[in-house]
């Protein structure tokens, strides 16, 4: 870094003004930066308004905390990390526009997000065309990394796409094994919202459930924008199913659960990580009691590696909780920070001056990242998927999602 500082000092004396690096902005205030410093921006894409904003804001805050922690600890000498959060409103079209905007900002050298798998589908190609690395803390649709034929012929889709959340190829079957083997439930009424995440998750659940010997009474669908599910609730009651499996998110899942119970079917609703939100229990009220949700990773509160994250998040004074994906978002941002660190170590302590080259190097370095993160060991396989395959089953008890089992999918 000393060599770099001398170069910059020479430039200042020659031009009489600070210049901007091509790959990151040079801080104008040398007093505050302590000398030569490069700013690296981590983009964040998540729903920051709308029905899913509780989860999205938890993602944004957790990435912000990672950047501030890296700066405080001088994790990458000579680099100040900042974040650029954009609101995708859980809409694929808006997510696509955000991807284009982030690619157009030379300072952005990595992106965390999005929350929704359907939004990710609209962003991946744009990021790949610019070699801009994307690390999602929440996408679980298997096809994002392994292609549409992932069940029979896996094929990596984009070298720039990674995720710290494991996939629905494991999450759906994990829920099926818990329902059939542990809860001894034999018949299910399957409902999904026809979206990439919900339909895919419900499909992987049904495949495993029937393989185990369970019976799918019927497969039904809802519009995720609706809130009146009286008709389908009556059908569920009359089906006499042991439980409902719902593939979708909590804004529709919560009223669906309430209306099922109101119709007289006192059976649990089981779903995936998009139900494991505090807002699910708020919206469904007492009807949520006894419902289940699986989620990716182990409960942060039970991990020694997450204690500091939880304490730091509280100390940072954010108004909103870190929610379902906070710990995974912190690890996603830390992945990019570690990739930047590695590129600088390989390049004489500085980032490539060409932003295109910097992005390419950081994407390549991400594939080799390995560190002990908040959620455990963080590294990626050849498809860009996390090597951490831990899952947790939560049950709503006393108005809160309470972990009842943590482990990995059993081989059949």
Short characterization:
This protein has 412 residues and is an alpha/beta fold. It has 15 helices and 15 strands.
Please provide a written account of the structure.
The strands form 3 sheets. The chain has a 7-stranded mixed β-sheet, sandwiched between helices. Strands 1, 2, 3, 4, 5 and 6 form a 6-stranded mixed β-sheet that branches. The model is unreliable at 1-35 (pLDDT under 50). With 412 residues, the protein is of the alpha/beta class. It contains 15 helices and 15 strands.
Keywords:
single chain, 412 residues, alpha/beta, 7-stranded mixed sheet, 15 helices, 15 strands
Topology (SSEs and partners):
Elements: H1 2-15, E1 25-26, H2 30-33, E2 38-46, H3 53-72, E3 79-87, H4 92-103, E4 108-112, H5 117-121, H6 124-129, E5 134-136, H7 143-146, E6 161-163, H8 168-182, E7 187-192, H9 196-212, E8 215-221, H10 230-239, E9 243-247, H11 250-262, E10 269-271, H12 278-284, E11 292-296, H13 307-316, H14 326-346, H15 355-367, E12 371-373, E13 376-378, E14 391-397, E15 400-407
Parallel strand pairs: 2-3, 2-4, 4-5, 5-6, 7-8, 7-9, 9-10, 10-11
Antiparallel strand pairs: 1-2, 11-14, 12-13, 14-15
Helix pairs in contact: 3-14, 8-9, 10-11, 11-12, 14-15
Question: What is the topology, as strand order, of the major beta sheet?
Answer: 8-7-9-10-11-14-15
* Helicity, as a percent range: 40-55%
Average pLDDT level = 91
Please describe the biggest sheet, giving its number of strands, its sense, and whether it closes into a barrel. 7 strands, mixed
Strand content: 15-25%
């Amino acid at each position: 870094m000393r060599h770099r500082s001398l170069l910059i000092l020479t430039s200042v004396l020659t031009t009489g003004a600070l210049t901007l690096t091509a790959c990151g902005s040079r801080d104008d205030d040398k007093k505050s930066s302590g000398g030569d410093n490069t700013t690296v921006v981590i983009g964040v894409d998540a729903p920051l308004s709308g029905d899913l904003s509780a989860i999205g804001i938890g993602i944004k805050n957790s990435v912000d905390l990672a950047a501030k922690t890296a700066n405080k600890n001088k994790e990458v000498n000579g680099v100040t990390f900042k974040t650029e959060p954009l609101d995708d409103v859980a809409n694929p079209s808006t997510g696509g526009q955000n991807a284009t905007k982030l690619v157009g900002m030379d300072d952005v050298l990595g992106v965390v997000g999005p929350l929704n798998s359907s939004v990710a589908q609209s962003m991946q190609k744009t990021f790949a065309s610019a070699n801009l690395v994307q690390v999602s803390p929440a996408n679980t649709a298997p096809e994002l990394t392994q292609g549409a034929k992932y069940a029979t012929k896996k094929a990596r889709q984009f070298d720039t796409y990674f995720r710290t959340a494991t996939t629905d190829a494991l999450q759906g079957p994990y829920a099926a094994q818990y329902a059939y083997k542990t809860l001894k439930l034999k018949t299910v009424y399957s409902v999904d919202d026809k979206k990439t995440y919900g339909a895919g998750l419900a499909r992987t659940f049904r495949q495993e459930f029937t393989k185990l010997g369970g019976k799918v009474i019927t497969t039904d669908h809802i519009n995720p924008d609706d809130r009146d599910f009286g008709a389908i609730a009556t059908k569920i009651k009359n089906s006499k199913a042991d439980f409902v499996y719902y593939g979708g998110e909590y804004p529709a899942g919560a009223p669906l659960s309430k209306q099922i119970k109101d119709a007289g079917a006192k059976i649990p609703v089981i779903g995936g990580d998009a139900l494991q939100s505090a807002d699910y229990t708020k919206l469904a009220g007492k009807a949520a009691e006894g419902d289940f949700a699986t989620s990716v990773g182990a409960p942060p509160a039970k991990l020694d590696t997450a204690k500091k994250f939880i304490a730091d998040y509280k100390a940072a004074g954010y108004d909103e909780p870190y929610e379902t994906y906070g710990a995974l978002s912190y690890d996603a941002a830390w992945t990019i920070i570690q990739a930047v660190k590695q590129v600088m170590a390989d390049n004489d302590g500085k980032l490539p001056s060409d932003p295109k080259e910097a992005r390419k190097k950081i994407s390549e370095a991400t594939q080799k990242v390995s560190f002990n993160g908040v959620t455990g060991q963080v590294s990626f396989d050849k498809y860009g998927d996390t090597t951490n395959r831990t899952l947790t089953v939560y049950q709503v008890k006393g108005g809160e999602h309470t972990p009842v089992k943590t482990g990995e999918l059993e081989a059949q």
